[in-house]
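Re: [help] complex structure
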Amino acid sequence: MATAEEVAKAAERRDIRDRWLLSAPALLVIFLAATGPLLIVLVYSFLTPGSYGDVKWQFSPEAWIAVFLERDIFDDTLSVAAAHVTIFLRSIKLSVVTTIATLVLGFPTAYFMATRSEKTRDLWLFLITIPFWTNLLIRTFAVLQIIRNEGIVNTILLKLGIISSPIQILYTDTAILIGMAYVYLPLMVLPIYASMEKLDFRLVEAGYDLYATRFKVLRKIIFPLVKPGVIAGSILVFIPALGAYVTPSVLGGGKNMMLSNLIELQFGQGRNWPLGSALSIAVMIIVMVALLAYVRNAGKSGVRHG
Amino acid sequence: MANRFSIKHQPGFTAIAATCFIVLYLPIVVLVIYAFNAATSTSEWGGFSLKWFQSAWQNTQVIDATLRSFQIGATAAVFSTIFATMAALATTRTAPYPGLTFKYAAINQPLMVPEIVTGVALLIFFSRIKIFTGYSGLGYLIAAHTAFCIPFAYLPIRARLENMDLTLERAAADLYATPWRTFRRITLPLLWPGILAGLMLAFVISLDDVVITEFVKSGGQDTLPTYMLGQIRRGITPEINAISTVFLLLSVAIVTLFFFISRKHA
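Output below.
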């Protein structure tokens, strides 16, 4: 006869086994069509490029060297690959500036939304959510039509006589920046709004009672309390911005490449799959570092604010 | 002007917020207006016309791409929602058990990796399988879409489950209902709004995807977004505006529905 304890243990084991079986299909699909292939990318980054794309199964560290360095064809000396470094720096710079721009615009917007009456709050939330769920390509295309030389911005400025010839915005870094800030703005607003909504305004009142100025209340009370939302928003904007493909392809033209365009190039005309793989892993490492910083920061602020 | 003395007031914030909302909607409004432009070029206004909607409707490439998008979206949404529901049932309403954290991480993994990296990874992996099996149908796109839709479908289903306690299920079990019967008659009806929300989310996410599709598709497998990307790169006609307008309407309709479903059951 099994004791009660043994029966309970067996039931628990069965429960855990059932739970693994239930989650198996989801885990399997994700492993086959998302996580698993990443390991192949890692392997490919250490192989030799094939003549017509794909790879030869021969170990080579060349791809990783080529991420930042260039080998001279004649004397085999290594020098810094200026083109790659420029693209890395441009991508990081554009992503950081996008994050800051969306924060500067998104923070007051989230604050505005959170300070509305409960009934209208839903409406504002809805208005922010709609662009968030509309196709990113369509939104990028909408920006393209606005900032073109014949677009509405240039037309109005010309009509007002502020400029005499259209400003070339399209196919510049500024265009990519405007486009990314535009498409990722809801990603910044939503998490800040989520923390802002829970903000206890009695604390703000207490601040004013103690003769704090509006700015001081903002800086010393509101900002620290919604910091987790700010960090979450920054991560949510920074990561897709760094890997952005659609926005730089449409608004940056051919020459203002970002990392994703450089990667695509290696799998297309470049015919250097190992280099493309190494660049992909490099992007992922940057993203992982950013995520790790977020997790550590979120943990810390979680403790502080209970 | 009572607002100025309110403790909630911060100088300039309302102005910035107003700018934000205007900036968010202005380009979309302009895009929609130009869809009704009679002129052939997008740089001038030639009067009101529906001809670009007509020309899009008669463009077999557009219709094919749209049908393909729907086919992939619907299949991926159904599969990912079923799998996400099962996974959500397996990861909620339980004491922590070995592997639970791993499951959370694994399910959310597609959200953490930039799309371009996943796209490249799938390009490599699927091109090998294509050579090996000779199959080059829509299955690859459906598999890829199902994978990245799972975390989105999982989100509302899990949220819904976490707000449901086990009382009713226990009561059903006390009344000698089999586990399957309990699931069918108790759990599923209660969970339904979450599942519906997950299904719609997954469908929208699949419909919107450009990057992964662009890398995974074989020749002649354009979805509507990848077709549009190709057209935009080649130069634009108001036909793209017309297609975008219809696409926008569809997205707004789905989001509105989603919003009301999740609010009604909040």
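Residues 60-91 of chain B form the longest helix (32 residues).
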